[in-house]
Automatic annotation (TrEMBL):
<protein>
    <submittedName>
        <fullName>Helix-turn-helix domain-containing protein</fullName>
    </submittedName>
</protein>
<dbReference type="InterPro" id="IPR011990">
    <property type="entry name" value="TPR-like_helical_dom_sf"/>
</dbReference>
<dbReference type="Pfam" id="PF13560">
    <property type="entry name" value="HTH_31"/>
</dbReference>
<feature type="domain" description="HTH cro/C1-type">
    <location>
        <begin position="13"/>
        <end position="69"/>
    </location>
</feature>
<dbReference type="InterPro" id="IPR010982">
    <property type="entry name" value="Lambda_DNA-bd_dom_sf"/>
</dbReference>
<dbReference type="InterPro" id="IPR001387">
    <property type="entry name" value="Cro/C1-type_HTH"/>
</dbReference>
Amino acid sequence: MKRPVDPRFGAELRRLREARAMSLRELSAVAHLSKSLLSLYENGSRLPSPENAAHLDKMLGVGGRLASLTPDPMLGNEATPNGMTPGGLTPSDLEQAERVAHAERVPRALDGGAVESLGGVLAAHRRLDDTVPAEVLWPIASTHHQMLVRVAGEARGPHVPALHLVVAESLQFVGWLSAQRGQYEMADRMYAQSADRAEELGAGGLASQSRRFRGSLAWEQVRLAQMVAHYAHAAQTPGAGILHRIDAGLRHAHALALLGDPAGALRALHAASDLTTAADGAAPDPFAYWLTNSWLRFPLGLAHLELGRAQDAADNLRAGLADLPDQQRDTPWTAQYRSALETAQARA
């Protein structure tokens, strides 16, 4: 049986190596492990033996952090009293890894459990994005995406559409990571592909979210006309949930204000605001776990700021930042909202 790969291992190994300013070649030399093997560890293609993980812990001086992510095959999958396996994984983690490995080996035997597990790995990567830099997460996420595309191309049966939806979600995520790495053309292309595939599959929320990401990418690049168009498209995507529609509508208002159309911005702002009552208590989609009513404070604050309502902008941006979960407070994407808050406070 193929040993399960904890998606955190490769990211953690690369983070620890780079924190010590070591190249793969340098770590290979001191650890007496091949550069190609270390590369497989880092991109998530292979999990090392407990002995190699412990050896890397020693070479990097990290006190067992890597070994804790490596199950011992001699101990099997038996859980300890706290529900964890000896390697630090739950039995459900191991089952998920086994299903993923089987789907990769025999894509034509795809079943619902395999699709759920493949999506679960993607969800774990998305959560890691809150705490792991994009450069560290990229090799793992892109490798998983390539595997998803390959399996989806070979799979047969009734579960294939569900797998194609996971591919569309993965396209959005690797697009996001590409944008964080400065690969803007690649990011825009992946967002567009994600939106088109999601709409074909009837996943309006994902399609709207990917178009919203295209708008935010255009904002970062000061392409205001494209920003307006992408946000408008996102707000009008058929089948999009109410939180997606409000988020896109508020950002459309912000874009119109930036473009010098305050009347249009106010109309868009009022249209989005009219939906907020119906959004009370709405749950975010699993692939957009951050999209909550509190999150909507950010685009609302940006719209108010460009419309000259500095105090309203400051109040909303401050509340949005205060309501962020702990793991999201220091992520790079919060910088644009902190900067906007400073501007709003200075103008208020």
